[in-house]
What we know:
Layout (H helix, E strand, L loop, with lengths): L20 E2 L20 E5 L5 E5 H5 L7 E5 L4 E12 H5 L8 E6 L4 E5 L9 E6 L2 E2 L9 E3 L12 E7 L6 H4 L18
Parallel strand pairs: 1-5, 2-11
Antiparallel strand pairs: 2-3, 4-5, 5-8, 6-7, 6-11, 8-9, 8-10
Amino acid sequence: MSPGFQGRPRSAEPALPPGQYLTEDFPVLSAGPTPKVRPDTWEFVVTTEAGAERRWSWAEFTALPQDTPTVDIHCVTRWSKLATNWQGVSLDVLLDGVDTAAAYALVHSYGGYTTNLPLADLRGGRAWVAHRFAGRDLPAEHGGPARLLVPHLYFWKSAKWVRGIRLKTMDEPGFWETAGYHAYGDPWREQRYTGD
């Protein structure tokens, strides 16, 4: 290499998945009305493929060990928001000690929404049930009182108003997946729709 050679200058633009644009806003997108779920009536249930359940009330859930991830999020409608700050409980904590041979999860929300994920994508510090955003309680329009947060996948996989996860031995498509969205949804591979 020649002395003084610096290579190509680095772009000042942040790295975004293909086809995405950067936003400073936090757009609100929902397929139906916003459920009004009060924390005193909220519960979260993990159900194994054998039907065994573990459940938490709001007080029990918020008493669990908390993480404060800072992550980039990417919506299938092409916006990305970088370095977002959350607080919530890791799925590693919620799944700790659960006896399961399942490879998949079907996430359920208040209001009837569902989405499917490989169980491996909910483990290893990659997913949370988040209840605070940017230092404040998560507002209902963004999925409060609690939503799933799986930032390495398109944001429709981060189900709003989450109420439980059913562990499954076979993959079962959720709401958007049955409507033609990709079963996995990796933004870096532009897995927006079936066949991508």
